Amino acid sequence: MDGRIDLKNRTLKNGSLTNTVPRRDGGVFLTDAGIETTLIYQHGLELPYFAAFHLLRDTAGTEALRRYFRVHAAIARAHGVGFVLESATWRASGDWGEKLGYSPGALANVNRQAIQMLHDIRAEMETERSPMPISGCVGPRGDGYRPDALMLPDVARTYHARQIDVFAEAGVDMVTAITMTNVDEATGVTLAAQDAGLPVVISFTVETDARLPSGETLAGAIAAVDEATGGGPAYYMINCAHPTHFARELAAGGNWVARLGGIRANASARSHAELDAATELDAGDPVTLAAQYADLRARYPHITVLGGCCGTDHRHIAEIAAACAAPIGAGSK
To answer: DSSP character for 259?
Structure first.
C-alpha cells in the first residue's frame, strides 16, 4: 500500500456542490469534538450508555444535537476548511439499541433520522470552501475502552452490516468506525462497508503505551486490517487518546504512518482507566492541545482530518482550526 486516499465524489440529489471525502491531496477537514462529554457536562443532558442518538427521541434533544453540529460547522466555515459531518450514531447498533428499548425497526429509523439531520445541516451550511461530507458513525459492539465483545471478522461483518446498510440507504458519503479496540472488529466493519459500496475509515483507540486495548500495536493492527480487506480502509485515524500517548510511536516511523489520515484526540492526558474513574470532566487546555496538533501536522502533513474526542468541545476545535487551517503543501480549495 502506498497510503494514497482515492475516493469517489458524490453529487447531492438536491443539486448542491459535489462533496469530496477528505483526501490526502486536499486541505484540512475538521470534525466535531467530544459529542457525548460536551452534551453531558456542558449542556446537562442525560445520555444513557453514552448514546447521543437517544436525544433524537424528542424535539428538545433533536434541537440540542442540531445546535451542536451547527456550532462546529460554523468554525470550519469561518476558517475556510472542510468539515466531516459525523452522525451521532456511535451507540446506535443492535446491542446498544436493545439496551435502550429500541426494536430493530425503531433503531433503523433513528439511524436514518440522524443522517437526515446532517443532510439538512449540509444544505444550510456547506460552502465551496467548506465541503461537508456526511459520515455514518459506527461504534464498537462492546465497551470503547475494553475489548469485551470480541467477535470473529465475519460475525462483526454481519453485526455492523445492519447499521451500515441503513447508512447506505440514507445517502452517506462514507462510514467511520470510531474507537475500534481490536483488529477483528475493525476488519468486520471494513468488510461490511465494502459490501455496501461505501468508503470506510477505521479509527483505533490506544492506551498510554500506544497499543490498542487488545494489545496490538498500531502498526500491526493497520497491517492486519489492510491484509484482510485488500487495503479496504480509505485511511486510518486515532481517537480517544491524547497526543502524548502516540506521538513517540509515530516518530518511530514505518509504512503504517502513511496510512494515518486523521486524529481525534482526548483533551486529557489521563489513561482510559483514570478517565473511567473520574467524577469531573478534564477539559485540558485547548491552546496546548492545538499546538500539539500543529506539531503533528507539520511532521505528517498527510494527516488532514482533525477533531476532538472525550473532554474536547468547540473551543478546542476552534483553536485546532486556528493552528492548523493553513494547508501544508497542496492548497486548500
So the answer is: G
Cα-Cα-Cα-Cα torsion 8, 133, 58, 308, nearest 10 degrees, comes to 120
Assigned domain for 331 exists? no
Tell me the pTM.
0.91
Which residues partner with 236 through β-bridges? 202, 260
Domain that includes residue 263, residue range: 22-324
Report percent pLDDT > 70 for the chain.
87
Confidence of residue 210 (pLDDT cuts 50, 70, 90): very high
- The answer to whether residue 10 is domain-embedded is no
Helix (H), strand (E) at residue 9: strand 9-11
The CATH number of the domain holding residue 40 is 3.20.20.330
Domain assignment present for residue 14? The answer is no
All three cell numbers of 30, joined, read 475538521
Is the Cα dihedral 195, 175, 127, 118 positive or negative? positive
Grid cell for residue 330: 497542496
Residue 201 in 3-state DSSP?
strand
- Positive or negative: CA dihedral 119, 121, 126, 130: negative
Count of the separate structural domains present in the chain: 1
- How many residues are there in the chain? 333
| Dihedral angle of Cα 194, 137, 216, 6, to the nearest 10 degrees | 50
Counting beta carbons within 10 angstroms of the beta carbon of residue 266, is it exposed (0 to 12), middle (13 to 18) or buried (19 or more)? buried
- The grid cell for 263 is 486524529
Q: Is residue 95 part of a domain?
A: yes
Distance, in Å, from the CA atom of 255 to the CA atom of 21, rounded to the nearest integer, reads 23
Could you tell me the three cell numbers for 190?
Answer: 471494513
Dist CA 317 CA 76 (whole Å): 9
Place of cell 433520522: 113
Cell of 266: 482526548
